[in-house]
Structure formats: structure tokens, C-alpha cells
Amino acid sequence: MPLYEYTCRTCGTSFEKRLRIDERLMAQVCPDCGAKGATLRMSAPALVGSHATTGTGDAGFCPSTGAPCGCANAIRN
Q1: In sequence order, what DSSP letters do the residues of 23-54 get, joined into one string?
Q2: Taking the CB of residue 9, how many other CB atoms lie within 10 A of it?
Q3: CB-based burial of residue 76 (10 Å sphere; 0-12 exposed, 13-18 middle, 19+ buried)?
Q4: What residues have CB less than 8 Å from 23, skipping those under 6 apart?
Q5: Residue 17: predicted pLDDT
Q6: Which of 26, 46, 63, 76 has the fewest Cβ atoms within 10 angstroms?
Q7: What is the pLDDT of residues 17-26, one digit of tens each?
Q8: What's the count of helices (H) and strands (E) in the chain, helices before strands?
Q9: Residue 23: how many other CB atoms lie within 10 Å
Q10: CA 43, 49, 52: angle at the middle one, nearest 5?
């Protein structure tokens, strides 16, 4: 189950909850003050591994910096 971040509109407390996707927009109760209706926060996704790869196993070169890169835009030689 995904982990969602919320902020209480009443006291400003930030908290996380593991919920099913269909539960994420339901009113959430603040664990500190008990107020209902916390705001769902947008957060950056967690990335696993040292860098993104294209799945080919070989790194190309970044078109912006020229450094070795595994992104989808990398120029392969």
C-alpha cells in the first residue's frame, strides 16, 4: 500500500498514513488534535537504486552535461 502525507488544517501537524489508493481522498483524522479533513500533501516519490536506468544495463552520455548517464535521453555510442 502507498504511503500518503497529510497536513492538519487545524493544528498544522504533518503525518503519514498507509492507505489503499481509493482511500487517499477520504477525510483523514489528525493524530494530534483529532480534527477531521487533513489536506493531502504532494511529495516526491521514493527512488530505489543509485540512478535510473533504461534497462539495457549500459550507460550512455547525458546530452546536457556529457557525463555518463542512464536516463532515457542518454546518447548511446
Answers
A1: GTTS--B-TTT--B-PEEEP-PPP--SSS---
A2: 12
A3: exposed
A4: none
A5: 94
A6: 46
A7: 999 999 999 9
A8: 0, 5
A9: 13
A10: 80
The pLDDT tens digits of the residues spanning 25-59 come to 999 999 999 999 899 998 777 666 555 444 445 56
- Chain-centroid distance of CA 50 in Å reads 16
Task: Give the phi and the psi of residue 20 in degrees, each rounded to 5.
Answer: -70, 155
pLDDT of residue 1: 81
Closest to 17 in 3D by CA, of 1, 32, 33, 37: 1
H or E segment to which residue 18 belongs = strand 14-18
Which set of grid coordinates corresponds to residue 62?
Answer: 547525458
Place of cell 500518503: 4
